[in-house]
Sequence to fold (770 residues):
Amino acid sequence: MSDDEPLLRVEDLRLHYRTERGIVRAVDGVSFEIRRNEALVLLGESGCGKSSLTKALLRMLPRNVAEYSGRVWLDGTDVMALDEEEFRRRVRWVRVSMVMQTAMNALNPVVRVGEQVAEPLRVHRGWSQERALARAAEVFRMVGLPGDFLQRYPFELSGGMRQRAVLAMALVTEPALVILDEPTSALDVLTQANIMNVLKRIKRDTGTSFLLITHDVGTSSEIADRVALMYAGEIVELATAWQFFHDPAHPYAKLLMASVPRLREVREPAHIPGQPPSLLDPPAGCRFADRCPWRFERCSAHPELLPLPGARRSRCWLHAEDVRSAQA
Amino acid sequence: MNRGRTLYTSLKRYPSAMAGIAIIGFLLGLSLYTLVAIPYGDAIARWRGGEHWQQYPVNARPAWVNWFRANDLPATIRVESAAAPVEEEAFTGARRLRIPLEFEYTYGEFPSEMNLFVRAQYAELEPFVRLTWHTPDGRQIPMGGRRVSHEERVSISQDWNLERRLGRLPHVGLLARPGDAEPEVLPGTYRLVIDAILFEPEAKLEATFVSYGRVHGLAGTDHQRRDLMVALLWGTPVALAFGLIAAIGTTLTTLLIAAAGVWFGGWVDAAIQRVTEVSMILPLLPILVMIGTLYSTSIWIMLGVVVAFGIFSAGIKMYRSMLLPIREAPYIEAARAYGAGSGRIITRYMIPRILPVLIPGFVTLIPSYVFLEASLAVLGLGDPVLPTWGKVLYDAQAQGALFYGYYYWVLEPAGLLMLTGLAFAMLGFALDRIFNPRLRMI
Fold:
């Protein structure tokens, strides 16, 4: 395992659900990678398949899966080849842990917070309650919670504290990668900023990688090293944070950035007309074509994730080699 | 424990719960006392009947019925020769013993029966005894003579000769005022004098006279002279054990199976549901009757069948409906994400979550199994050897207790059953209020 080998490499990951109205292609051929000590922000609007992607990564599949395929390498190990038990013992919370989208409710209301945070250690390392609780107290300090909060029940904590507790639960086993699914969506802005600061500090102190899933452009810019923009089950742009926030390439990214209010700019935030396509029956061509002001005849064909200069990629025919050379 | 104390504090606010706990504590104490005072082997041996009870009256009411009567019913009077002033006189070839068995009879009612038990020790020649009855007004009624063996029961009440001479049942005639058309007790000191001739120098003779009362002890006796107290006492631990084991056995297993079905879903769930539906339409009582008739009425076999059928009961459907939303709870998903196995999720996350809601139901389930055991016994499917409340009821019914007015025979076991039901119900309802805040009164 070399140092430039990415921590996580995902290739052509697909997760389709079977519903009464047909197949929902929630994750449809997603590829990306996360390097060590890197924060990748997966940005996308509601219903674009962000949470399904996390489910696919941790293999937390619902019962109505129609297709689940692709390759996922973690530290060079092909985790898709592991059986359920191996996956549980070697991946979940050992290498990759997660903060649920519903973090506010992710705590069992009738069990003390400390016991819950310590639970993964007891499950995976077979530690005694005392030892696990001691480690939990350590992690509590790391996320900025007083150690005596271990004795509290979830309802005795505020929203932000609960979020920190859930984060502590994700960090307690010292995983290489933490997936955060909308970790701040239910919190007020001050608490959001606090949590993001905690994340930044942990990233700096422990070298953990983060996959932060959010629809909030502002929050994501706080921590992101790189950004993956998702639209209708596909990644449409992969870029470094600086590239993405200053010079978005994909039309959807451009419009999205234009819709974000800026602090030092006098400009009405724009909005993107139209609706994202249904994942039940996505259009055969470019999935953003219906809403795209730069649409041209080629958009009726489905674009690949095309390489752009600066190690970025975009899923847009405008960035096809021949189109770019023609423009130039 | 802290949680236990909190629960106790909330229970204290419900007087009914405290009353329930007190009754349950009383029943538990009674059970412990019984297990120590009358060991299992003893209880079974005694309840089999026979010798042990020969000096007990038949169908005697409990002693406390006298509190409600103008003239008291007689208790059993026992006179032993050992305490009597025996006169001994020796002459050639034999000895003569004169044993006066004296007792005071002051009751207004006649006894139910009279017997004389004679125990003789001799090598070959049986002693000869002659009995004479001395009344307070100086009459002497000869009651004949006879040879007595080692253990002889002289049934005074069934002495036809005596009955003919007295014109009345002997135990009435011997105690009645002479000449009365309607027999009336002549109160005073009576004496049964035994004149015994012993033909051997080493021979001995002892006698016990018993005038059987119409009341006995706290509980009374049954048709086989058995003290009902034995059955009422022993019925307590049996009932509690049966109820508790059946309730725990069914509730816990049912819960575990329901949780497994909910968690694994798919064909596991489907199979559990179908088995439950089939089991729910099978009639339990007729099956128990068949097993009891064709195989064994042992209480433990019955318990096993009750638990087996109780597992796949409507409870599974109820628990399933309670567990289904919990399966989808985010913290369960979180537990799955951090790698908790199925067993751990079921036992540590799902079941504890609904356990508090089930405790009141569990507590009220206990007496229903106690009643089931009693129902089986009343149907004649009681345990063949163990004395239980249900078997007392069965005997009472079989002997026409209510027809003959032996109400105590039915009321005592029924009262204990009701007390048990009441105690658990009171505790259960209070627990329900505590665990289910929506029922709490504001």
